[in-house]
Amino acid sequence: xxxxxxxxxxxxxxxxxxxxxxxxxxxxxxxxxxxxxxxxxxxxxxxxxxxxxxxxxxxxxxxxxxxxxxxxxxxxxxxxxxxxxxxxxxxxxxxxxxxxxxxxxxxxxxxxxxxxxxxxxxxxxxxxxxxxxxxxxxxxxxxxx
Length: 145
Description:
alpha+beta, two-stranded antiparallel sheet
């Protein structure tokens, strides 16, 4: 004969509910931080640049490229529009770690960021992080309820 299972105590239920609310709040803040990165990315990758002026392929229109050291200029808009934002979380014995991640889906973004032997770098990633950092710090500094 087995002993009947005990129902969880009210304290355990209250703790479990509180932990669940906190986990939801942390995940929500991760999404908001990812959105802050995305907004910063849109801001960094817009505007005029000061490089050479080129003719757009198959068009009479012209555009100004970025100079070495500037964020890339927008020609097609593909770099600016193809980003994947995610929230990564990992639990450990002492808590949960949440990371807001924004990754470009364009293969050439790494070449723009780091340059190649034929082209000087057009770094933009650190500028995105620097622009988003104050908003992300504010998001994670809010009081938990």
